[in-house]
Design brief:
single chain, alpha/beta, nine-stranded mixed sheet, 7 helices
């Protein structure tokens, strides 16, 4: 039986998933497990251009449903994480990996869609030491260059992560096959080096969408987190069009858990069906 999540004009259909915190499916040559690092919501203050009444209509209330998701990919004996969530007391990634009987030292690679705190916080512990003792980090060259020099707490966290993984950080260019079967695509806008990872059967889209209930029907709206709003809108539409036309599932870090959807065109916007 399918569950329906209705949020005003945006409709999401949630398929069979025994536990939204952990949900596994096969996409081509990859076994993919969606891991909910933390439950969350997105509030109207993140979308200042949208009147509160319209936000409430689309969201179905005071806040739009969301999540902080991480994706575990397995292929040919290798175990790959896409992002690592919050870390610390806010994040459940290491506990979820424990539920899957996966030791932290068995993670081989970590793909970073970008380096905001809710994507890299799970890489280090409270003492600033690497949580994944043998993993190699893969991050786009423009993203790495930006955060190495960025000011504020975000830059400080990024540099702590890079120091903890010194000698195990590899940068890539857009278009590279970063690992067998995984290609990095230019998704800049949210951050200077934001990346979509394409396995050929799944698009891992990072923060292309912060609040699906708002941004699917109105893809022109940006959350305040988007560093380059104009480019973010162009990127969002480009990948949503690709996903809809190719019928390729999308894995989003802030889609409501379990976070993997099919995208459909609807007027000037989109709807999504959870697998």
């Amino acid at each position: 039986m399918k569950r329906w999540l209705l949020a005003g004009a945006a409709m999401l259909t949630l398929g069979n998933a025994a536990e939204p915190e952990l949900s596994s499916s096969r996409f081509g040559e990859f076994e993919v497990t969606a891991i909910q690092d933390a439950a969350t919501t997105m509030r109207q203050t993140l979308f200042a251009a949208l009147p509160e009444q319209e936000f409430r209509r689309l969201a179905g209330g005071d806040a739009a449903p969301a999540s902080v998701n991480v994706f575990l990919l397995k292929r040919n004996g290798k175990q790959i994480l896409a992002d690592t969530g919050y870390g610390g007391s806010r994040g459940a990634l290491t506990a979820r990996l424990g539920q899957l009987d996966i030791a932290l030292e068995k993670i081989d690679f970590i793909l970073l869609t970008h380096m905001h705190g809710d994507h890299i916080g799970g890489l280090i512990d409270a003492a600033g030491k690497a949580v994944f003792p043998t993993a190699t980090l893969l991050v786009s060259a423009p993203e790495l260059a930006f955060w190495q020099k960025a000011s504020g707490s975000g830059g400080e966290l990024a540099r702590k992560v890079l120091a903890a993984y010194a000698g195990r950080v590899k940068s890539f260019q857009y278009g590279d096959e970063v690992l067998p079967g995984i290609r990095a695509l230019d998704a800049a806008g949210h951050t200077p080096g934001h990346t979509v990872f394409d396995t050929g059967s799944l698009l891992i889209v990072g923060d292309l969408l912060h609040a699906a209930a708002i941004q699917l029907p109105k893809p022109e709206l940006c959350a305040s987190y988007d560093m380059d709003p104009e480019k973010s809108v162009q990127t969002r539409r480009r990948f949503l069009d690709l996903a809809a036309d190719a019928k390729r599932p999308v894995a989003g870090m802030h889609l409501p858990a379990p976070g993997i959807v099919l995208i459909h065109r609807s007027g000037n916007g989109y709807t999504a069906t959870f697998r």
